[in-house]
Amino acid sequence: MAYRVKAYILREESTESGTRYSISFKDRQGGYHELEVSEQFFMEFRQMEKHLNN
Fold it and tell me: Is residue 24 over pLDDT 70?
C-alpha cells in the first residue's frame, strides 16, 4: 500500500483577539497558499487525519 506525503500544514495560533486556525500548502506550480479556516473546519480536518492514520 502506498502513502502520500502530507501536502499541507494545519496551524492553530493564539492571538490577542482569539485563536486563529489555518491550513497552508503549495500548489502544483510551487505557489504557497495559506487559508484561514473556521474552528469547525479545522477540528473536522484533524478528525479526518486521526481516522486516516489509524
Answer: yes
d(Cα 14, Cα 20) in Å, to the nearest integer? 6
Per-residue confidence band for 6, with pLDDT thresholds at 50, 70 and 90: confident
Pairing of strands 32-37, 18-26: antiparallel
CA distance 41 to 47: 10
Cβ-based neighbour number of residue 49 at 10 Å: 13
For residue 30, what is the DSSP state?
Answer: S
| Distance, CA of 41 to CA of 39 (rounded, Å) | 6
